[in-house]
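Retry 2 of 3 after timeout on previous attempt. Resubmitting structure tokens to design endpoint.
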């Protein structure tokens, strides 16, 4: 198999398979979540559930002073690599073009060198997070195989993208194919691990905020 054959395989059948598994897996997870339902609250509402839910979704983007004081490394490094991942995913010109060709929607992208620099910082942030996890006794004890799997697939997507863009693997079709394969593994793993928080975190935050909002208190 040539490098071009490998690239065509990752861009064709493997991509379709990964998207299908991702879509079916996420649909099953969302059905599972919403099928749980919740008991009807017969108490008279003292506030707006919707306002409480939206307020909590907004507030969770800001770290409270107590959390930052207790775990400054986690807050700073976690914020850096999460934002970097989102920037690389949604604001890289080739990714925006892929989304446009697939879904028919697009938005302004950042210059490629800017995204490249952000990707490098994100890779360093992920490495720092892994070293911190391994060197922190409590975190190392609490970490599971799933935690390291999530870190691994996330890191590989960023690393292979950086290597491909900077032509650090030759030939280029091989580098691009490896990056696409890493992204496909990420998609396949996502619905069946804690990576689902990419989608469910917003639902959970709104739900918790709505409960407290209806009671007239802030979460």
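Retry 2 succeeded. Sequence:
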């Amino acid at each position: 198999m040539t490098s071009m054959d490998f690239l065509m395989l990752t861009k064709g059948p493997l991509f379709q398979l990964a998207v299908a598994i991702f879509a079916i897996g996420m649909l099953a997870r969302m059905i599972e979540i919403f099928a749980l339902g919740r008991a009807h609250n017969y108490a008279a509402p003292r506030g707006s559930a919707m306002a409480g839910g939206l307020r909590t979704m907004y507030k969770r983007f800001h770290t409270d002073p107590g959390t930052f004081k207790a775990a400054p490394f986690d807050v700073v490094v976690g914020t850096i690599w999460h934002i970097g991942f989102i920037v690389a995913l949604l604001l890289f010109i080739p990714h925006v073009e892929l989304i446009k060709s697939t879904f028919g929607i697009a938005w302004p992208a950042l210059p490629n060198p800017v995204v490249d620099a952000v990707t490098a910082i994100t890779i360093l942030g992920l490495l720092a997070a892994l070293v911190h996890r391994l060197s922190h006794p409590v975190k190392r004890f609490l970490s599971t195989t799933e935690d390291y799997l999530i870190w691994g697939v996330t890191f590989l997507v960023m690393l292979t993208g950086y290597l491909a863009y900077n032509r650090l693997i030759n030939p280029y079709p091989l580098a691009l194919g490896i990056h696409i394969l890493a992204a496909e593994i990420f998609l396949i793993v996502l619905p069946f691990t804690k990576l689902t928080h990419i989608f469910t975190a917003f639902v959970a935050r709104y739900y918790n905020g709505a409960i407290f909002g209806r009671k007239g208190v802030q979460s």
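Attempt log closed. The chain has one domain: 3-12+65-215.
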